[in-house]
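During the first year of the project, the team set up a workflow for recording each protein of interest as an amino acid sequence followed immediately by a discrete structure-token representation. This format lets reviewers and collaborators read both layers of information side by side without switching files. As required by the reporting guidelines, we include two representative entries from the current panel. The first entry is reproduced here exactly as it appears in our internal archive.
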Amino acid sequence: MPTLTVTETEDQLIITVEDARIDAAIATRFKDRLREIVLRVRKPVRMDMRHVDFMDSSGLGAMIAVRKALPESLPLVLDGLTPNVERVFRLTRMDSVFQIGSASAP
């Protein structure tokens, strides 16, 4: 099961991903758990990704599914991307789909 810490503020949801890898081994559970959280709360989402050192195409697909599950009006901001994970977003041009926040987490 993916390890996520969820903090709800008055105006947003902050989700800290505690796992070092988002890959084929956890991607489906990761996607399902995130969708459950973001659809229940229905607030803008900031994801603290500073602990994630590796993401493969399955992990990226899970992130895309979560983005698609959110209404367009609710932002999904990714904070604290490590260089390896940021490279995945850049090389696949998903950095134009996702809002990339600060390198240091919130």
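The second entry, processed by the same pipeline in the following quarter, appears below.
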Amino acid sequence: MPGSLLAPFSAIGRGGIKVAAGFGSWGRFMGSAGRSLRHVDVWARLLLGQMARIGVDSVPIALFIATFTGIVLALQASYTFTGAVPLYFVGVLVGKTMMLELGPVLTGLALSGRVGANISAELGTMRVTEQIDALETMAYPPMAYLVVPRVLAGTIMFPAVTLLAIAVGIVAGWITSLQLLDMTTPQFMMGLTLFFLPFDVMFAVIKATSFGFMVTSIGCLYGFQTMGGAEGVGKSTTRAVVVSSMVILVLDAFWAVLLL
């Protein structure tokens, strides 16, 4: 009986230890990556290519999500505000929600699936086929060659893609308001600018930058830790996406508490 009562606490303890161990492993991994920054001649020539793969290639999915998010926000705002709040508050809701929450978070979650999974699968395949070991054998710095350009590219490009997604989402909400809600452009713009603060954009950039850093670093970590052939690659990819998504939600709450 006492054992069954203590079982939930044991599970919580094991989970806490596992999380702490994972955080420690990530910290050591990123410390090694930080030391590899001195090999500028290795990672600098790969950075632009990774920026294109991580950022430019992710634009279509980010804009697709942002477009329909803006449309749904405008429609739901008009439904909620009917008869109670002036309709120009649709612009307030669309603008604030896209900039402060849905723009960065939905873009981050979408890119965690696309970018995080791609990085983990690519590096995991290189690990199980011993390509990373070959780099180490040839005294070629694998962290500088494989990790640093990906993490830097994600940290740089996630904010750019997020800002573009926010802009497209707001435009989609504006067009929806004009076509379906019998609003005028001045009404929508009045709502959009009513409570706008420049810090709203900075807040989105801060969140997106942290999301990009974490998604790419977690993808690299699980890729480097891959074992067990094709099955191991699949497991690492799944873990990278799940952990990245969870970290994005935790960071979302963290930045809200810290900065708002």
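For the second entry, the following points were noted during internal review. The chain has one domain: 20-259. The two ends are 47 Å apart (CA to CA). Both points are flagged for discussion at the upcoming steering committee meeting.
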